Amino acid sequence: xxxxxxxxxxxxxxxxxxxxxxxxxxxxxxxxxxxxxxxxxxxxxxxxxxxxxxxxxxxxxxxxxxxxxxx
Length: 71
Prior knowledge:
The protein is α+β, with helices and mostly antiparallel strands. It has one domain: Alpha-Beta Plaits (2-Layer Sandwich). Helix content is about 30%, strand content about 30%. The protein has two helices and four strands; from the N terminus they run E-H-E-E-H-E. The chain has a four-stranded antiparallel β-sheet, covered by helices on one side. A hairpin with a 6-residue loop joins strand 2 and strand 3. About 20% of the residues are buried.
């Protein structure tokens, strides 16, 4: 299992609800959350065998900015 961390432009709970439908369809995601209080609106994803690029692509196709934060 790995934890992937992304900077996003998710603004509010309405967007988070939209993400629920999008992210639950991605095989390999175990758990995820968005920190709406953080300036970077950080998306944290616990996943198995999933590339950060795959999540970025899905988020971008849904109309969101999403870029992996390297730690």
